[in-house]
Prior knowledge:
Elements: E1 10-15, H1 17-20, H2 29-44, E2 48-53, H3 56-64, H4 73-97, E3 102-107, H5 109-113, H6 115-130, E4 134-139, H7 153-163, E5 168-173, E6 194-196, H8 201-205, H9 217-230, E7 234-239, H10 245-250, E8 257-260, H11 265-276, E9 282-285, H12 287-296, E10 305-309, E11 317-321, E12 327-332, H13 337-343, H14 348-355, E13 369-371
Parallel strand pairs: 1-2, 1-5, 2-4, 3-4, 5-7, 6-8, 9-11
Antiparallel strand pairs: 7-8, 9-10, 11-12, 12-13
Helix pairs in contact: 2-4, 3-4, 7-9
The protein binds adenosine-5'-diphosphate (ADP) and ligand VHF.
Subcellular location: Cytoplasm
Amino acid sequence: MSRDLKNAQRWVIKIGSSLLTNNGQGLDLPAIEAWVKQLLVLRRHGLEIVLVSSGAVAAGMERLGWTSRPSALHQLQAAASVGQAALIQVYNEFLRRGGVHGSQVLLTHEDLQERHRYLNARATLRTVLELGVIPIINENDAIASTEIRFGDNDTLAAMVANLLEADLLVILTDQAGLYDQDPRKAPDARLLTEVEAGDPALLSMAGGSGSAVGTGGMSTKVHAASRAAQSGAATIIAPGGAEDVLLRIWAGEPLGTYFRPGVAKLAARKRWLAGQLRPNGVLHLDAGAAKVLREKGSSLLPVGITAAEGDFQRGDLLCCVDPEGQEIARGLVNFAYEDVLLRKGKSSKTLLELFGDIDEVEIIHRDNLVLSN
Length: 373
Ligand SMILES: Nc1ncnc2c1ncn2[C@@H]1O[C@H](COP(=O)(O)OP(=O)(O)O)[C@@H](O)[C@H]1O
Ligand SMILES: N[C@@H](CCC(=O)OP(=O)(O)O)C(=O)O
């Protein structure tokens, strides 16, 4: 057993439609209250919690008095727009009792594909977390057309785990975890307690949704675990109906199915950074800085920078080039273009005199730096 959750600080928790609703009719309020109580405890233990919650369509149907799920997209979207308001109201009411605010963030696939919107979503969510608020994310069902839909919230939750470089993705569902075959169809199905994310054999075991309200079934959850592992997150598919499920996972109880991310978090994260973002500027380094980056993978300090190009902001990906113009590395910059210009070529001592007590000296921290081949 290698569930190493001691250092898992940022959790993305996904609660699926099959769990949230009473047979597709409205929201299961006592269940939601119980999860929120657990989130509040985890937060008090210092964890950062991001919630991805389904349930908008089901809640909307109940409010509108519809007894069967419509098949027309515009009706589903109308139900989602009514239900999303109800869903947030319910979460916020339970969170308020614990003195915490929830925030609503609705995303479409395009928001996480298009670079500018991706960075915006990331900045908003990070700020919300810094403010101690619990973001509650769902797909923007009211406007997402077929082409830009995630469809299921497992994929959305994994992309949010990538976006925020979460340590753990917890997918709460109506089964005890991933079985070697669909337990609704095969009574002798065996629960898998630990697997490797990305193992292709898992896909043949995972079937579609067994309920009228769920979307994607286990197959989207298995894909989600591989996707989350790309940025180094482990995934646990766990029984959302089990008492204190989240607290028990936190305490290390081997509930559900644990997906090992495979590669060390830092290495995975770096690889993901390099593949995911397009560079938005260039930093020119002197020979000394180029050498320490190449040979030691050190952080990039202002003193080694001779010039900067590009209209970049804090958090953007930049290329670092040596005096011959050859790319050495890529990394996430800690300062916007103007602030890099103010700092370039200056020693840490001069910067201290100029800016007083500075908490961030590196222009790019080595954890956010990937050497180019
Ligand atoms: N190998 C499997 N192990 C567990 N559940 C499976 C498996 N294959 C298919 N399923 C089905 O997946 C369902 C859960 O997915 P889904 O209905 O989409 O729930 P959610 O709304 O929580 O995402 C289960 O109820 C089960 O019928
Ligand atoms: N976004 C939709 C839910 C999509 C959905 O059901 O996904 P899942 O919970 O993965 O089965 C809603 O809020 O109704």
